[in-house]
Amino acid sequence: MSLATTAGKSVFITGASSGLGRQMAIEFSRRGYAVALTARRLEALQELQRELQGQGAARVFVAALDVTDEAALAQVFAEARAFLGSIDIVVANAGVGHHGKIGKLAFAKVRETVNTNITGFMATVDAAMRCFREQGQGHLVGISSVAAFRGMPAGGVYGASKAAVSTYLQALRAETYGSGIRVTTLSPGFIDTPINRGAKSRPFVITLERGGKLLVDLIERRVERATVPRWPWALVARLLAVLPTAVIARLK
Ligand SMILES: NC(=O)c1ccc[n+]([C@@H]2O[C@H](COP(=O)([O-])OP(=O)(O)OC[C@H]3O[C@@H](n4cnc5c(N)ncnc54)[C@H](OP(=O)(O)O)[C@@H]3O)[C@@H](O)[C@H]2O)c1
Question: Is 5 a domain residue?
Fold first, then answer.
């Protein structure tokens, strides 16, 4: 497979061992980016590293990283930056997708969702911003969800965690307005990955291959925010936000 060159561009991805993070790594690499790939499962990252190098990718950094560990985040960012020279894009993607009714879902899963999707996400953004401020430029991408638009039955903690992602990035976008730092919020609907394979229904689901291409296209266009795919989710998300509770309650 031939590699297009995107001279000097580099991307750091959390949660790159599976699903969207892994597919974005493949897609960025195909487009000629140097990639820094992180997740807790190092063997999965090393397997991906071998796959990408087999396809001709020149610069692939991998490191085990739990996003809830701030000290590890600082260290891995420093190592990745030394390896890549600079980090142009950070994709804060790592996340878990526990669902269940409030008071029925084991509280350990509620805590894991908050720790990973909120605290871990904010710690990733914090480390990225320290790096970008030193560099004087950078592009922060957060993976939110259409679940951020409306609290759904059995989706309380997941939706709340993604609403936190979207609101946090909204604040960051205002803080960095007019600077060399760009902030993008991407809100996927259903893209076929392990996170949703057990779901009862997956409306408008798209393949992982297509999802990866759409995500990287939007990142390269440096959009402020978008649903993925844009249609029908741009409309559905806004509809969900205004539907009466009596209607939402039937979507159990
Ligand atoms: N797929 C969809 O339809 C969809 C829709 C909306 C939003 N999203 C969001 O997209 C992101 C990726 O999800 P996915 O669909 O690709 O799910 P996935 O296949 O389950 O991948 C989740 C990734 O997150 C990593 N991760 C989990 N906890 C972590 C931690 N504490 N530290 C570091 N990495 C951690 C996992 O790696 P390790 O286990 O190796 O650490 C894995 O690589 C999530 O934020 C999810 O909420 C997905």
Answer: no
Kindly tell me if the per-residue pLDDT of 67 is higher than 50.
Answer: yes
What confidence score (pLDDT) does residue 123 get?
98
Examine residue 134 and state whether it is found in any structural domain, yes or no. Answer: yes
Structural domain that includes position 37: 10-248
Q: Indicate whether 4 belongs to any domain.
A: no
DSSP string for residues in the chain:
------TT-EEEEESTTSHHHHHHHHHHHHTT-EEEEEES-HHHHHHHHHHHHHTT---EEEEE--TT-HHHHHHHHHHHHHHHSS--EEEE---------TTTS-HHHHHHHIIIIIIIHHHHHHHHHHHHHHHT-EEEEEE--GGGGS--TT-HHHHHHHHHHHHHHHHHHHHTTTSSEEEEEEEE--B-STTTTT-S--TT-B-HHHHHHHHHHHHHTT-SEEEESSTTHHHHHHHHHHS-HHHHTT--
| Total domains in the fold of the chain | 1
CATH number at residue 74: 3.40.50.720
- Looking at residue 7, what is its pLDDT? 56
Is 31 inside a domain boundary? yes
Residues within a 6 A CB radius of ligand 1 = 14-15, 17-21, 39-41, 44, 65-68, 93-97, 116, 120, 143, 145, 188, 190-191, 193-196
What pLDDT was estimated at residue 69? 98
